[in-house]
Q: What sequence folds into this?
């Protein structure tokens, strides 16, 4: 059986940039969200959110290269560079590297504002071709592919909050069938004015923190943005990496079967409508939840995966923020405790009874 | 504002090329390839920018190819079309 290992991780979000910043965040209290004014029909409204900083990309990629890229592609490119560098792989001439991007919403700034504004302002004859190109769902993956010379198969998957496990299913399949030996897998979403506006319209409440995702029935979600990328390998690599990717599955909740002796990393993110379902799924299990570090966003399961991979490699537990407000009938992982289990499962619950499970194993 | 200054400002804004409006830019430098490094997608954008800012439609691509050599050739082409 082919063994798939996580060789490199590239993460950034409201907590900072890179694996070290992520570890530091997981060992600390969550940083408070920043406040972002969102334009609405009734004037700007403040939204608390976990925003990502893209300036580290300027040190990695020449400004000329970034000239035509929108913020969504830049976010993904930063995640890709961080993951490849973390794996000890040069971000160039990566012929044969597979590339899969998962995103819940895609390039909403470009699609909704830049392109549509161009159509409205200049008419369909003079619409900007660059804005049009950036609005395509797979432009971000194409930009990364061009930048790092990845000529292997290339795919973009979008299934809202199940985008990560859905895309990871394909990544795993590519590696198992030997189509590629390595896959650069990443999840990314930006918090554009559009997403901020939709958040305000749909959720109405603005939580300035903290998130309390393990308090059943409480609405405490705070939106986030960022990217989490991974180098997945079916090779016998020189460096040991973080952990193994054991299994990925998606389905409907009546079919959600709890594994034996598994530790659940819950994707609970303070959205009230999912609180009871997460509580039921966690009942009797040993659990942890790290969403208050990066916020509520479709790539959340990829950040959960990064946290699990770090715990498996370092063989120690990180504390779940706001654990004192937990009312789940579950056992919360004690911070700093040695990790004794061989497997961890990142569990994501989604609308229409959907779920996604990502199972990671100790190397 | 003369044609060349207006053209450089439009291209700097629309193609995100701030160096075009800098003092050191050589207006005879090639727009494509080794010079400014523009490519085929930029060429399509360039056609749109000229239509949008100067009201000139470039339909003859042979003519356009010569005009797109540098800032100076493009500004001269625009002036010629505007005075025709």
A:
């Amino acid at each position: 059986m082919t063994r798939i290992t996580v060789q490199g991780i590239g993460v950034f979000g409201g907590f900072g940039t890179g694996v070290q910043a992520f570890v530091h965040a997981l060992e600390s209290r969550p940083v408070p969200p920043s406040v972002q004014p969102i334009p609405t029909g009734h004037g700007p409204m403040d939204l608390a959110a976990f925003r990502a900083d893209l300036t580290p990309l300027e040190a990695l990629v020449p400004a000329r290269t970034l000239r035509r890229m929108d913020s969504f592609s830049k976010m993904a490119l930063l995640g890709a560079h961080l993951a490849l560098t973390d794996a000890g792989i040069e971000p160039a001439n990566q012929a044969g590297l597979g590339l899969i991007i998962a995103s819940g919403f895609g390039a909403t700034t470009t699609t909704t504002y830049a392109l549509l504004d161009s159509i409205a302002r200049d008419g369909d004859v003079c619409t900007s071709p660059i804005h049009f190109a950036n609005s395509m769902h797979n432009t971000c993956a194409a930009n990364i592919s061009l930048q790092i010379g990845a000529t292997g198969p290339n795919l973009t998957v979008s299934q809202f909050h199940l985008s990560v496990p859905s895309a990871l299913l394909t990544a795993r399949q590519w590696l198992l069938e030997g189509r590629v030996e390595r896959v650069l897998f990443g999840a990314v979403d930006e918090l554009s004015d559009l997403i901020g506006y939709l958040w305000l319209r749909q959720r109405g409440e603005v939580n300035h923190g903290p998130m309390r995702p393990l308090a059943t029935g409480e609405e405490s979600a705070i939106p986030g943005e960022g990217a989490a990328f991974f180098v997945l390998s079916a090779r016998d690599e020189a460096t040991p990496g973080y952990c193994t990717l054991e299994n990925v599955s998606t389905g409907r909740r009546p079919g959600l079967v709890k594994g034996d002796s598994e530790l659940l990393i819950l994707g609970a993110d303070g959205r009230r409508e999912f609180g009871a379902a997460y509580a039921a799924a966690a009942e009797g299990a040993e659990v942890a939840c790290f969403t208050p570090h990066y916020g509520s966003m479709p790539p959340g399961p990829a950040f959960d995966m990064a946290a699990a991979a770090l715990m498996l490699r370092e063989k120690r537990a990180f504390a779940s923020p706001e654990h004192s407000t937990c009312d789940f009938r579950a056992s919360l992982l004690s911070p700093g405790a040695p990790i004794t289990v061989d497997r961890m499962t990142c569990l994501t619950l989604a609308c229409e009874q959907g779920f996604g499970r990502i199972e990671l194993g100790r190397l | 504002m003369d044609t060349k200054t207006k053209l450089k400002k439009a291209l700097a804004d629309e193609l995100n090329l701030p160096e075009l409006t800098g003092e050191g830019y050589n207006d005879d430098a090639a727009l494509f390839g080794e010079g400014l490094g523009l490519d085929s997608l930029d060429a399509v954008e360039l056609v749109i920018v000229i239509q949008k800012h100067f009201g000139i439609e470039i339909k003859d691509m042979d003519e356009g190819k010569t005009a797109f050599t540098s800032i100076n050739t493009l500004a001269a082409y625009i002036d010629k079309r505007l005075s025709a």
